[in-house]
Design goal:
This protein has about 170 residues and is of the alpha+beta class. It contains 4 helices and 7 strands, in the order αβαβββαβββα. The protein has 2 domains: about 30 residues; about 140 residues, Alpha-Beta Plaits (2-Layer Sandwich). About 25% of the residues are buried.
Length: about 170
């Protein structure tokens, strides 16, 4: 993780210098105090590919910089029965927001896209979009652990879900 952090910091320094030379302020979202998040994305209703692309666009607009996106994987429903297969992906995102701020914004995105109910107590249902916070690392590369009523990090069930782990392995770099 430290080598990657050094490499990312070097890349940030170089891009920052480039943007100041070119007068480009669009790079300001990435700076030395970012947290690195790994998110799981899933959908099984409507135009699934478009749902994932819309979620990524809204993450960019409202949360932070998506620095890596996995391929999209078709999977069977997990934890409930449905005739609708899922399309899943994972993303790496950099932002200065705290985990609870990221959670609030991802839930707003889910709502904007038409999701009305979150899964509660292991009761799952079809959904237009689901955005799960899987992992978070602070600016030094340390894993952030939390266990609150609102959020548990790392995600407690991710290791049991191949539809999460396969795309996560694609974007996770240590």
């Amino acid at each position: 993780m430290k080598n990657e952090e050094s490499s990312v910091n070097e890349e940030l320094r170089m891009k920052s210098e480039e943007s100041s030379v070119h007068g480009d302020s669009s790079f300001s979202i990435l700076h030395s105090s970012f947290n690195k998040y790994y998110l799981g994305l899933g959908t099984n209703l409507g135009d699934k590919e478009e749902n994932l692309r819309t979620a990524v666009r809204l993450l960019e607009e409202r949360v932070g910089k998506v620095t890596s996106l996995s391929a999209f994987y078709a999977t069977e429903p997990w934890g409930f029965t449905s005739a609708n297969a899922f399309l899943n992906a994972a993303a790496e995102l950099h932002t200065s927001l705290s985990p609870l701020e990221v959670l609030a914004r991802t839930q707003e995105i889910e709502c904007m896209m038409g999701r009305r109910h979150k899964s509660v107590n292991g009761v799952y249902a079809d959904r237009v979009i689901d955005i799960d916070l899987l992992l978070c690392f602070d600016a030094s590369g340390a894993l952030i652990r939390m266990n609150t009523k609102e959020l548990t990090l790392p995600h407690p069930l991710m290791g049991q879900r191949e539809f999460v782990m396969k795309p996560l392995r694609e974007v996770f770099r240590d």
